[in-house]
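Box 3.1 — From sequence to structure: MHD domain-containing protein
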Amino acid sequence: MSPSGRPLSAIANGTIAFTAKVSGVPDLILQLGCPGGIQSAVSLPVFHPCVRLNRWKERPGELSFVPPDGRFVLAGYEVDLLGDAALDAFSKSATSKSLPKLNVPATVSVHPSLGPSGSDFEVRLQLNPRFTGKSPAPHPGSTSGLGRGAGFASSGTTAAPAIEEMVVHVPLPASVKNVADLRMVRGTGDAGYAPGDRSIEWRISSREISLLMAQDRGGGVGATASLRGTVVGESEDAPDLEPVSFSNDYDDDENHEHTPNLPKKKDSSAEKNKTLMPSCATVSFSVKGWLPSGIKVESLQLDQKRSVGLGSGVTPYKGVKYLCVSRRGVEARC
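Predicted structure (token representation):
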């Protein structure tokens, strides 16, 4: 994201992990769906050898296959979360309403060169109120025959996605030797830095996230947390001084005192501290019950005609779970 908050690039890589514990030879049809259609959203798909490629080509979003026993990766794909709107956002005629918007669990911003000497910085984390992990009631008819993973409005479901963990990394320039007075200005968490490290790590547990979310009180703006610190560069024991000149000329006939020019330190500490400031921050998180692409499993059907050895009246248990994992995937620049 740019300093103004405009998304510059947003790519999601997805994987469909499948676990089959079956007897006989079941023939399955998995139907995927997403807003705008699978064909326009998914790019660069890859499939397990058991998937019939012709079926996918004829009907995008439909996977026909006979699963091997156990756990395996059924398919992988890539999604451009900004779509065609990404290019339009850089045109001069683009307005704030036409800019692409990302529905992410959290965003971060860096505010450098604060304080009298410009040596302080502040990192602000904004949580999305949608990811509280709470829902007032289950949605009727939301199970779709896919089991508990998709239908009940408990913590970490599609009806109530929940943030499991969150880590903010703040990279620092190599010239930074220490970060003094690292403290939480607002919110909570565990921030750590050791002299010589190249980044600050700020961890927020799921329990602390829940406490922050409770501060939203239905306002719809989410909760915020702030971390502040002071950068320390090379030792400044030898101050940088302006050239000094003294005048010792005097006249006994003149009744006045002459004060020599005193050395003046350059007012350049703020300029020097600019080079020590962090220029970006990244957010890592995991969310249960949510995918940024909006792709979901519409149905999983058992083809009785093609299946072999299942026996009559067999009703298999079907379940689906959604998990989004981002490793420093949300980056904001300043």
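Summary of the box: The first helix runs from residue 38 to 41.
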